[in-house]
Amino acid sequence: MSVNQQTHTGPPYGQPQPGYQGYQQPAYGGQPLPGVPHSQYGVYNGPMPGYQQPVPPQGSVRAPSTSGTSLSSGHLGYSPFGQGDVQNGIPASTAPMQRPPASQPFLPGSAPVPVSQTSMLQQYGPPPASVQQLSNHMAGMTIGSTSTSAPPPAGLGYGIGPSSYPPTTGAPRPPTMPGPPLPVQTAAGPPTSQPNHVSSPPPPPSTLSGPYQGPPMSGLRGPPPPTHPPQPGYQMQQNGSFEQVRGPQTNYGGAYPGTPNYGSQPGPPPPPKRLDPDSIPSPIQVIEDDRSNRGSEPFVTGVRGQVPPLVTTNFLVKDQGNASPRYIRCTSYNIPCTSDMAKQSQVPLAAVIKPLATLPPDETLPYLVDHGESGPVRCNRCKAYMCPFMQFIEGGRRFQCCFCSCVTEVPPHYFQHLDHTGKRVDFYDRPELSLGSYEFLATVDYCKNNKFPSPPAFIFMIDVSYNAVKSGLVRLICEELKSLLDYLPREGNMEESAIRVGFVTYNKVLHFYNVKSSLAQPQMMVVSDVADMFVPLLDGFLVNVNESRTVIISLLDQIPEMFADTRETETVFGPVIQAGLEALKAAECAGKLFIFHTSLPIAEAPGKLKNRDDKKLINTDKEKTLFQPQTSFYNNLAKDCVAQGCCVDLFLFPNQYLDVATLGIVTYQTGGSIYKYAYFQLETDQDRFLNDLRRDVQKEVGFDAVMRVRTSTGIRATDFFGAFFMSNTTDVEMAGLDCDKTITVEFKHDDKLSEDSGALLQCALLYTSCAGQRRLRIHNLSLNCCTQLADLYRNCETDTLINYLAKYAYRGVLNSPVKTVRDALINQCAQILACYRKNCASPSSAGQLILPECMKLLPVYLNCVLKSDVLQPGLEVTTDDRAYIRQLVTSMDVAETNVFFYPRLLPVTKADVDSDSLPAAIRNSEERLSKGDIYLLENGLNIFVWVGVNVQQGLIQNLFGVSSFSQISSTLNTLPVLENPFSKKVRSIIDMLQVQRSRYMKLIIVKQEDKLEMLFKQFLVEDKSLTGGASYVDFLCHMHKEIRQLLS
User: Fold this and answer.
1) Residue 951: CA atoms inside 13 Å, Cβ hemisphere, count?
2) Helix (H) or strand (E) holding 470
3) Which of 897, 887, 764 has the alpha carbon at shortest distance from 8?
4) Confidence (pLDDT) at 1026
5) Span 431-454, average pLDDT
6) SS3 category, 779
7) By percentage, how much of the chain surpasses pLDDT 70?
8) Residues 332, 347: contact at Cβ < 8 Å?
9) What percentage of residues in the chain have a pLDDT greater than 90?
10) Strand order from edge to edge, sheet including 328-330
11) Taken in order 183, 188, 191, 197, is the CA torsion positive or negative?
12) Average pLDDT, the chain
């Protein structure tokens, strides 16, 4: 799948599915993110009410399709539909089904089962007698999404009987799915042991009134006699509508295995059958369909409330008044008009905002608008910035604010006449009137102490304790910095970077270096009183690289020699940050500290820590303390850093527990990045570290940043997630904000919204550029508002929803037991799906699991979040790993969380060596792997190369340069450079994947049946995990049970 965006570009995964057969699907998962810390962003002066534009043309709305996968025990369910009501509202009798007409209130997203077979099983005629009986005992679940108006999909029966949930203990589920219960059984009775993630006890059998019958046949008139035999040939399309046979889709099984002779023999019910993984929604199919449907056309942002393509689709964006999905993605692009409706659906309303996202080369960067000394034009009351949604009135002399409705005079220098439509005649000449994203040059009023800022500084702070020197790390850093200093970020047209640099080394004491250009040799000054940190020199500490180059090179040559024989093993950490902060204060500038640190700071000093790691706390109420800092010292220090614009990037090289939860606090709250290289070894980890360091030093960063999100009346920003600090309820403050970081904002209703005006958000980021220029970057987005739940479910974006839910859960573990957090996640998603089932799907048997089309992947992705190391740690996962992942995910964009939770698995032996494209991805399950093939699996942090035991000798020779499987070394961290087409192709695929991710991924070679295979299998997320995480099939059954409990 070529996500050809860089990870940070954002769009890839959460975009709406391209129009399924002509319909645009609602956004894929765009639910709001739950976890945004509340109130952090308050209303930026006024809630953003909905700015509702006219409904987008039919083409841009995704039709709710309903996916009807019916999970029914082992056989396919027959359609519980009445006479003309075939699923999705197509008249039952016509043989070739077509997609429902656009006007149908096609349900919002029902999730079609990816199964190609799903609906085919529907028999369009009255069920033969035997079927009738069978379906009476079917405990079937339909995973169907049905459209509001349409009758429920006929259950594809996949047999998930109520009792097939995994036992609580986490023991493996019996391989077969229990067959339909015999008539005497009350099928609804809870399995005796519940799956390990069941929070509430399943309902007593009585709720199902008697034996659980499959779709109630009696109440619905049977469909008219079939005009054709049951068709294996009709596949349910991804969006639940039918089409003529297209042959099984990739990754979907053929035409429903095992049911062909359904109503023919009245004999005994067939033996129990396991739910077929090919018949449940497939992420790969959804991604491929979106690519083929939406990858070719540019995404034009002129229409309100359009769901963008998925983040995994490579597409071009044309800004025509709304911000690109690379900057903002929402959990839903059509939000409920009332808070009651929002509460009923439980779909979180959130936006994942990446204000400085990198754009692909063929898209235009935001224009910089300079209004001179008067500064940007703003609303008098709520202070919103001029944008395309402001309404000019009285011939252009005043404008009415689209956020708070206040009328403001247009300043004389900004006046322009209106044309006959009420638009200013300079509309297309002004970015702020015609584009969704643009920048303003800020005036001195937007600067600290009312004076323009100095250019920022970078301070490199190197741990020179025994471990750092002995591992070769100190020498490596010094060598790299000699060349890297020529690549500091600079404004587009500048000859050289304006950033000044400084150097500190430390162990138990700190060493500052004077590298003034007039010196022949650098001078070192030692500060041993770490309890009262100060900077011993002002002049000569922060310098211009070109002016002081010879002195700097001399220093970098000398540092490894000076400390070559050190025996000092202890380090300090708090005073190191304090020293950097004091240096920036003295220079009156913002900046970034690059700290290279190896061990737990146990030396006597402020911020000293003790080893408090304790695996015994896992799964207890005290587990949350492992994620909390052990002292408040670093929280206070972070606050001081933010006030100065001092951002901290941390490179950690631990050989044992380091307390990432505490050391990472300053990085996290200043908007910095953490990189961790456990058991660092020069030969295996050098490439990864140097690539990360180069990218970190060179990437675009805004300093001393403040972000506020304003909303139109009716909703307001209440909660925020990400790497930042908040001193009030509305302003997100970041000492530094780079092009990879996102801030997730959750919105709540504070009034009613109207369908006519919709809802608006405006994200305003005030920051200092790397040249010291104060700027405002503005992103505007208009959303639709709805009074029908079906419209909400039709316009969600699952990838964004999962991004929000993961962040919400990862914040939850700071204050609640992990089990509570997991149960709350499962419960919220069950409520989202139950609300859809109850209010949007046509009435159908409780045995059918019906999913909204654009949320049909919610169960599989949610299960991946639940199985992640933060919420369900594997045996080898350290406390530091969990704290590290928790911080990392909190500022990931949608494309990154997508591949992190559901890794990309590519069969490289199937790759076409003559094409530039990636091979088609396959689903993350061991049963998809063939012993004769080689696969790549990437999740944004690692790339695994899995080699099957039966791979041809020629392929092994071409890729690894050895003659047999047994000679392949598992310690390789790069593939050998061999001159043959297969080697070049695999290396080029790896390079393509590396470019798309914000971190350099570690390459790990895994031979089948080798000890590393256990690690690799944790990433096959559709399978049961060793730590007790459910397989996708089992979890789907479990979710179905939770939904039925809620509905009953």
Assistant:
1) 29
2) helix 466-470
3) 897
4) 87
5) 96
6) strand
7) 74
8) yes
9) 70
10) 328-330, 350-353, 743-749, 715-721
11) positive
12) 81
Residue 143 has pLDDT above 60, yes or no: no
Reported as a single tens digit per residue, the pLDDT across 744-787 is 999 999 999 999 999 999 999 999 999 999 999 999 999 999 99
pLDDT at 235 over 50: no
Q: Residue 192 gets which letter from DSSP?
A: S
> CA geometry: angle at 323 spanning 322 and 324, to 5°?
115
Which position has the higher pLDDT, 999 or 151?
A: 999
User: What pLDDT digit, counting tens, does each position of 619-668 carry?
Assistant: 899 999 999 999 999 999 999 999 999 999 999 999 999 999 999 999 99
Strands 774-786 vs 437-441: parallel, antiparallel or unpaired: antiparallel
Whether 670 contacts 737, CB under 8 Å: no
Alpha-carbon distance of 581 to 591, in angstroms, equals 9
Residue 602 pLDDT greater than 90, yes or no: yes
Q: Is the pLDDT of residue 176 over 60?
A: no
| DSSP conformation class of 827 | H
Residues 6+ apart with CB under 8 A from 869: 877, 881, 882, 885
- In the block, tokens 């590290």 appear at 884
CA distance 33 to 1038: 23
pLDDT class for 184, splitting at 50, 70, 90?
A: very low
Written as one letter, the residue type at 141 is M
DSSP state of 281: -
Q: Looking at the predicted structure, is the pLDDT value of residue 246 above 90?
A: no
- Alpha-carbon distance of 285 to 279, in angstroms, equals 11
User: Residue 617 in 3-state DSSP?
Assistant: helix
Question: Six-digit token pair at 959?
Answer: 């890729």
Query: Which residues are bridge partners to 407 per DSSP?
Result: 400
CA 10/CA 445 separation, integer angstroms: 33
| DSSP secondary structure of 219-240 | TSPPPPPPSS---TT-PBPTTS
Close Cβ partners of 195 (under 8 Å, ≥ 6 residues apart) = 165, 166, 167, 168, 1030, 1034, 1035, 1038
Amino acid identity at 520? A
C-alpha–C-alpha distance, residues 448 and 767, integer Å: 11
* pTM for the whole structure: 0.78
Close Cβ partners of 460 (under 8 Å, ≥ 6 residues apart): 477, 481, 501, 502, 503, 504, 594, 596
What are the start-end ranges of the H helices in 502-566?
549-562
Half-sphere exposure of 366 (CA within 13 A, CB side): 27
**Taking phi first (over 0 means left), then psi (-120 to 50 degrees means alpha), and beta for anything else, what does residue 134 get?**
alpha
Distance between CA atoms of residues 1020 and 1005, nearest Å: 16
- Decide if pLDDT at 867 tops 60: yes
CA atoms within 13 A on the CB side of 22: 9
User: What's 1009-1047 look like in SS3?
Assistant: CCCCHHHHHCCCCCCCCCCCCCCHHHHHHHHHHHHHHHH
- In this structure, are residues 1006 and 905 in contact, taking their beta carbons and an 8 Å threshold? no
- How far is residue 627's CA from residue 639's CA, in Å, rounded to a whole number? 19
* Beta strands in 202-349, from DSSP E residues, in sequence order: 299-300, 317-318, 328-330, 334-336
Element at 858 (helix H, strand E): helix 858-866
User: What does the block give as tokens for 445?
Assistant: 């009023």
Bridge partners (DSSP) listed for residue 641: none
How far apart CA 385 and CA 333 sit, in angstroms, is: 22
Distance spanning both ends of the chain, measured CA to CA? 41
Q: Point out which residues pair with 701 in neighbouring strands.
A: 738
Range with lowest mean pLDDT among 267-276, 427-436, 507-516: 267-276
Burial of 295 (0-12, 13-18, 19+ CB in 10 A): buried
Q: Tens digit of pLDDT for each residue in 957-1016?
A: 999 999 999 999 999 999 999 999 999 999 999 999 999 999 999 999 999 999 999 999
CA 871/CA 873 separation, integer angstroms? 6
Tell me: pLDDT of 7 over 70.
no
